[in-house]
Amino acid sequence: MAALDGLEQAVAEISAEMSGQTDRGKVADYIPQLGGVNPDQFGLAVVLADGRAICGGDADTAFSIQSISKVFTLTLALGKIGDSLWRRVGREPSGNPFNSIVQLEYEHGKPRNPFINAGALALADVILSGHRPREALGEILRFIRHVADDDGISIDQGVAISEQETGFRNAALANYMRSYAMLDNPVEFVLGVYFHHCAIAMSCRQLAMAARYLAFSGRHGPDGRTVISPERARRINAIMLTCGHYDGSGDFAFRVGIPGKSGVGGGILAVVPGRASVCVWSPGLDDNGNSRLGKIALERLSRRMGWSVFGA
Ligand code: DON
User: Fold this and answer.
1) Which of 58, 116, 178, 210 could form a disulfide with 43 if both were Cys (CB 3.0 to 4.6 A apart)?
2) How many separate domains does the chain show?
C-alpha cells in the first residue's frame, strides 16, 4: 500500500495529465441545460480521515450532481423505512442503461436497484411519503448540507426546469411503476422531487466532504459524528460498487476497484473504505453515460495509491 504522502503528488500529476487529454467524451445534452457546459474542465478532490482535502484542477467549481444524488436519497430512504426498502427496490446490477424501461415490465414494476432511474424514483417516493414535495426536497438538501458541512449548497433551478421540461422517459418510468402500484404518491410529485435533487449543484470538494460517512464506517471521520451505522455504510458501498455505473459497473470495478457513483453531469463520487472519499469531475461522458476522464483519472489514482478493494 503506497504511503498517503504520495497522494498530493498523485493528485497534482493526474490533474495535469487530464488537462492535456483531447478525447474527453461527449457532454450530456438530453437535458438541454447540461449541453452548454464547457467540456475542458477537470476537478479532483480527495478527503482524508482527518478531514484534510487534497485537490487538483477545478475542484471548487460547482456542477450538476445528477445521479450522484441517489447515494444520499438511498441513505435517507433507508433511514426512513429501513430494510423494508428492499421490498420496493432490488439490489442487483441491471446490465441496462440508467433510463431503461424494458426490465420493469419483466419484473412487475419493481426496479432492479436504487441507482437506475426507476429505483431512484422509488427512493423519492419513500422520502416523499407524509410530506409535501417542498418538505421532502428540504430534507434531502438539509442532509447533504449536513454531511458536507456546508450550508451554501443549493439546487440549480435552471437545470431542474430543463429536466422537468424534457423528462419524458422518467415520466414514462414513473407512470409505469404507478400502474403496478409501486409508487404511493402522485407521479408529478415524485418526478418533481427527483428532478430537483438531481439538479443540486456541488463541487468535487463538497461532494468528497459529503461522502466521508461512507468511507469511515458511517461517521464523518474515524473520530467524527455518527451519520449511519457501519453496517449500513458497508451495504451502500456494496451497491455503489455493483450498480453505481449502470451497464458500465463491471468495467469500473475491473479498472478502478472501489465503490463509485456517477452522474451525467460528469461527476463520480468514490469511496476508499477506511482511507478516503474522492470526487472527480469532467463533463464529457463515455457510451454508458459515465465521465470518460473521471474514470481514467480514478483508475490512475487507485492504481498509484494501491486503493482497489480487490488487492494491490
Ligand atoms: O434522470 C435523468 O436522466 C438524470 N436526472 C440523471 C441521470 C444520471 O445522472 C445517470 N447517470 N449517469
Assistant:
1) 58
2) 2
